[in-house]
Amino acid sequence: METETNGALLGAIGLCRKAGRLILGTDAVCLALREKKKPFGVLAANDVSANTAKRLADKCNTYGVPLRQIGASGEELAAAVGKGAKTAAVAVTDAELWRLVLSRL
Length: 105
Hints:
about 15% strand
């Protein structure tokens, strides 16, 4: 069941990427949080370092953006968005797509 749920979640994240409504990587996510048009939510892989987890949590709390940790590793997250390397975090920039992702969590 967990693999099925992860598959649906990763599929929804991939859809966000195809729609051009996804910000990839911790640095890009943190930068986007400071912009006027903030993301609707941030997703972090389950294997991010303690430092990265704290950095994301602090930024999301400061700017009032929800942060969710997903049940997938950085490698699985990277594969879902078509990247070859590990991806620690992504941000969704569309309200409807964010609701879709939340429904898959």
